[in-house]
Amino acid sequence: MTSPHPLGEFLQARRARLQPGDVGLPAGTGLRRTQGLRREELAALAGLSIQYYTRLEQGRENNPGGAVLDGIASALRLNEEEHAHLYALANHAAERVPAGGAPADREVRPGIRALLERVRPWPAYLLGRTSDILAANPEVFALLPGLADWAPERRNSIRYLFLHPMARELFADWERAALSTTAQLRSLLAADPRDRELAALVDELTEGSPEFAVQWQRYDVRRRRSDQETYRHPQLGEITLAFEVLRMEGGQRITIYQPQEPDEEGRRVLRGLSELATRARPEATA
Q: Which residue, 156, 170, 137, is CA-closest to 258?
């Protein structure tokens, strides 16, 4: 389940990841009973009283100002993206943004469907806010074996990675992909910590994947953007594809995969995906 106090949960998780030496404090003598920094150590680094900081972690203080947040971000050694995540959680805690937000946009415009078809044989799909696959060209199903076996309403890129039995063998570095995807889901949830659809997905993954349950508690934050992925494909062997993520209104985003280099190997991969897609074109998504 998602936390009723996501700001406090974030602070506790990130404080636990820092050791005194990481922030220039002496380790001291004897056994430390606290994992990571103590509250009083973090509060001092952030320029806050221990009482105020404790209330923040416990969810009893919900309106920290910008100076407070900046001090905490500096003390926790947050990067730019994590700093923005802290602000997003604080804004929701203070109800400076409406809870619930707008309904997720699941409409697939005809122009988007045409675009997915036009970029073939590059695999491309349209994801909704919760990473549901709203539309995809046939090469996506050739790239991700077994995805087409799921009903359209179950097809979700995060669910596939953690819960599909073929995914662990498909991704050459499954743990890296899983860590990146979990961090992406944390980033998605920051837009609205009370989003019921995202919370339901988190609950499903926590129950169905022990690895996800552990990684979720790390509280890594990272928006999915341009990167590359290596696959051990059952028909095509080991292949590496780069991908670009194009963000749209309503939480939708398009992901397009392409070979790293326009060489013979890249052309071989595209030919292989195209041939596989032609043999078995799956049912179109809604």
A: 137
